[in-house]
User: What shape does this take?
Amino acid sequence: MAAKTTTGSRKKAPAASGGRGAISIRNVTKIYDPEGVNVMAVDNCSMEIQAGEVCMIVGPSGCGKTTLLNVIAGFHSLTHGEIYLDDELLCGPGKPLAKQGADRMVVFQNGALFPWKSLLDNVAYGPMVQGVLSKSDARDKALDMLAEAGLKDVADKFPGEVSSGMARRAEIVRALINDPKVLLLDEPYRAMDALTKSIMHEALLEMYDRTKVTIFFITHDLEEAIFLGDKAVVMTTRPARTKKVVDVNIPRPRDYKLLSSEEFRILVEEAKDAVHEEAIKAFEAGERELA
Amino acid sequence: MTEAVQSAHDTSFVVKRTRLRKILDNKTLWRGIAAIILFILFWEVCSQSKVWFGIQVPWIGKIPPPSEVVVNWAEIVQHPGYWESWYLSFFRVFFGFMIAQVVGIPFGLALAVNKYFRDIFFPPFEVLRPIPPLAWVPASIIFWPTTELSIAFVTFLGAFFTIVINVLGGARTIDIQYLRAAQSMGATQWDLFRKIILPGTLPSIFTGAAVGMGITWEVVLAAEMISGGGQQSGGGLGFFIWSSYMGGSMAQVIVGMISIGIAGYVSSSLIRYVGFLSMPWRRLF
Assistant: This one.
């Protein structure tokens, strides 16, 4: 296995602040084995995410970021290594597949609101199906949370009737109502235009300031990563390893004015070379994206 | 954001026309009516060509003109036998169709969600599927004590395979992200089935129903022609056409054909309407 070109495996003690949602990824390797052809998607990848931290994973398309997310979420098994959530083993030796659970909610790349339910029923679904709340209580809570996100007026609409921005926001609300320890976002704003994206960013920041939930956010947009994150982890192209970790010590709350500030520019520059190098490698390899 | 919502509300006031006005303004409707009128005129002229111009137009010249058909029809509708044919054909179609739905939808869903079930039942299903329903007629006559049941069975087969293939295809193409999302929110297998797979398959169920309904009409008509007007199960629009042909009334044959066209249209409209009611999220446009 290749030597680590990273500063990302520094070990820190889990946050002692009583926060929750600290993720410890230790030497994780994932090899897909479709019909005997081994494809290494993640190679000996390690990182520590503090409780309540916004961790941005940056890397070229198809580098294996989503694989890592799928392993954490329990959609895929891992091949080597271990992952802990708040010092509890999620998956590791003898338990390659993490159990899916409402403590880790995923917001998918293409959006996965159920098209046959209204936004309100989508959001109310989690607590209802878990039996945590009765149907009417779940709907009341869902409406409150949608209202907080500015979606009260469209609560009764179907996902197909609202803009992609609203749908994505509702999807985040649907995740949050389950009170997850970690929010796993897989390039949620990928297909959006720059203007919508900036509105989505501010809404996400506002939501984060309110909830302080740990966020694991996959993107290939470096500026997005620096703007939103407490740190940005730059990944190598496939197989994914941590290449560089950029700590973003910009105070919150942040707004769009930050984008034109000097400190923002400096941080972007710092990470740019690393990202660009990997993007070229990925392009030249011409590899197709893995699921 | 709030402005966006506001403007979305405003547009609903702009397009406030009465229902009647909307229908009268509908160009598609007028074009459709004009096309049908033109078609009838064309038919009339071609059918009458021998009398009017002394030349017989091929094909259409051989059939009676619409004016004669209408006269014939006006007379036929006074006979209860004509309406009985309608009733009998409709009954057979819906009987076979409903049983095909009741058996086919659960069967298709079971194929979709259970690997073992699929491994066992899909291969024989695929071997039986290409056999045209009418090839089942002799076997069906042996299987069932009455002709009526034989017709019902063949009708059922016509719709069954189409329905199953559509349900299976629909259920298997449900986005895996919906299943993952529901599962991480704590849905049990039963929740997944009821709240994700079933609604996710509904559009395909209705596609299958629409296609299956068409096949059912074809099969019923053919079966009625074959079975004839025997003592146990006579009648039906298929038999109506066949006996009109035997009796040498071409106008009546055409009355029968148009009746089937209308019956088929009514049936598929019904399916569309039920689909419209049960899938509110697909009514967006």
Notes: Residues 1-9 of chain B have pLDDT under 50 and may be disordered. The interface with chain A takes residues 1-2, 4-5, 8-9, 175, 177-178, 180-188, 191, 195-196, 199-200, 202, 279-281, 284 of chain B (CB under 8 Å).
